[in-house]
Amino acid sequence: MNKKLKIALFITIPIIILILIGLSVWFFWPKNKVTVEGVPEDVVKTKLQFTHDIFDPTKVKFVTPLGELNGGYEEAQTINGVCVNNKTAEEVEVYAPADMTLEDYSYFVDPRQTRKANWHLGFRISKDVKLSFDHITSPIDSIRDATPPTPTSGYVPPKKKLNFKAGELIAKTSGTDQAHNWNIYLRDTFTSNTFVNQDRYEALKDRYDYINATCPFDYYADAKKQLFIALMGATAPGQSKTCGNPSKDVKGAISGMWHLTRDGVQADYQGEYATPLSIYKDSAGKIVLYEINKKRSLLDSTNPTYKDPATITTSHCYALTDYGEGEKPKGYAYFKVVSDMEMKLAYSGTGSCPTTFPEATAKTYYR
């Protein structure tokens, strides 16, 4: 073997060996795809866990589940969160359940209330999780200083950054004047709620995030979670075994939220017909029609036309016997399924349910 060949082999063989080793490592080593941000795509997300109570459960009568707080006309946004009903008119403490930063606020004046002071407070917990509160009456001083008490037309950032540790007091609240309740909203981008017309709600994420709305109590260890779940109900604790869901949609049936337009969510009235209109059976067993003719109808099992909207796939007429506000209305609401994406409603403030659907006076609604 000549000298040049020996030198070539001396150089080439180690290179070949290194290449083979590299290929073996690449082939057999467990691989994670890396995103632009450098986060492995197939790493399972570790679910956030709250370490401190948001409120003291002993000071609360019950908590209205997701999807069961009205859900029609101007109250459509409330189905995104749970509603905490205080036991008394006294303020209850509100705490940070995890480390979080005040991201935005809204200060609003409600002409229906004598107190005329309400804060909406939005806190960023992580890139994917945001926690918000409505009807806060007494934020702590540092939040008051960063959120001037002047009405705002939308959610705006505070004057300065405020960080809170898990367990810190952030506010006290007595909720609304009459009902003494307040709202908790949690958004998690890893949550995906399902609607019959998914595209409508996907397009609304910047305004009304129905898709990513989730239950704040699911972020506690199981023993703590069960203390909160025991409070769930439409009118009393224990009526619901779950925290609910923002979507009451049932494909092929009338249950769910309906609109007079084919896209978006617009709080509006066309005569007696409101948009949005929600129809569902709540955890207390009542049929909720919210709203028709500027009223919320609550129909219980004593109503001769009582029927779960989730089971109505053709047509059905409800006799309006109770608004839930002490009034005794007359008339009927007659529903007719046209398709998975369309239905018709015929309302009358007088008379009883007709034998056939009154097409001439009906209004068309869309998913």
What CATH first level of the largest domain would be assigned?
A: Mainly Beta
Number of domains: 2
CATH topology of the largest domain: Glucose Permease (Domain IIA)
End-to-end span in angstroms?
84 Å
Query: For this structure, what is the CATH homologous superfamily of the largest domain?
Result: Glucose Permease (Domain IIA)
How much strand?
25-35%
CATH architecture heading of the largest domain: Distorted Sandwich
Q: What coarse outline follows from CA principal-axis ratios?
A: globular
Give the fraction of residues assigned to helices.
10-25%
If you compute it from the alpha carbons, what radius of gyration comes out, rounded to the nearest whole angstrom?
Answer: 27 Å
Instruction: Give the number of helices.
Output: 4
Can you give the mean pLDDT?
Answer: 88
Largest sheet: 8 strands, antiparallel
Order of helices and strands: HEEEEEEEHEEEHEHEEEEEEEEE
Oligomer: single chain
Q: Would you tell me the structural class of the helices and strands?
A: alpha+beta
Low-confidence stretches: 23-44
Total E-strand runs? 20
